[in-house]
Amino acid sequence: MVPKSCIYYLVYEHPIHLRRLEASLKLLSENFTKKNPYPIVFGHEGLSKEAKNFIRKAAPIEVDIYFKQVDFSLPDYSEEILSKIPEKFVWDGIWDKNAFFSMGYRHMCRWFSGAMYLDPFFDKVDYVMRLDSDSYIIDNIKNDPFQVMKDKDAIYGWVDTFVDDENVIVGLNDFCQDIAPSDNDIQSNLAYETNFFIQKCSWFKSDKWMNFFKPIDESGYIYSRRWGDAPIHYQGIKRLASEDKVIKIDIPYHHGGDFHDGLLKK
With 80 as the cut, is the pLDDT of residue 178 above it? Predict the structure, then answer.
């Protein structure tokens, strides 16, 4: 095991979310933490006693678990920026009923884009693995990905990429080119699937990343244009990190839907 490393879930109190989290934790235990008992941190805005007890019961018995409250509030933006931030982000004239554009979702995007590293908690962490409530490790992990990251001195580990919708990356590529110019051939609409990643915390806490994140954060575009952490990770890492420091993590992994009795159900 790699010291000072942890698995991190951002959780909220919703029956579907908790149901999927329970399945995710069961599979995590069966396929990884029984042999590699890394601590699990549950970030949250606020959880009832009942929800915390549910998570404690669902969590792998072989690991230490921690609850860490996060502050999801808007930064101290000017009135001009605040006036451009809708409570509900409308996409092609339609409100997304799955809440992928809700204010809470945009807070999450800001958090994983870099705001998490403003929290001194991460001063004490070397590597962090993010998982969603519907992140499923569906078979045994043969090689500890934390150890792989350390052995390769990598700063970022990813499992897949996807093409993001043009409606939620308006202006992002040009903005990033202004703040972090690069001659690299960067596909403007490509993004890392950030429902899973491993980060070397010291690199993301450094000026290199934070000087990239800060102007994005100060623009308010995460809220007004719904720029997500997935394309922000991709843009920044492609511009700031050498290729040998960014590695694809080879694990049996699935994201999305419910997982019951070995079967995925959408």
Answer: yes
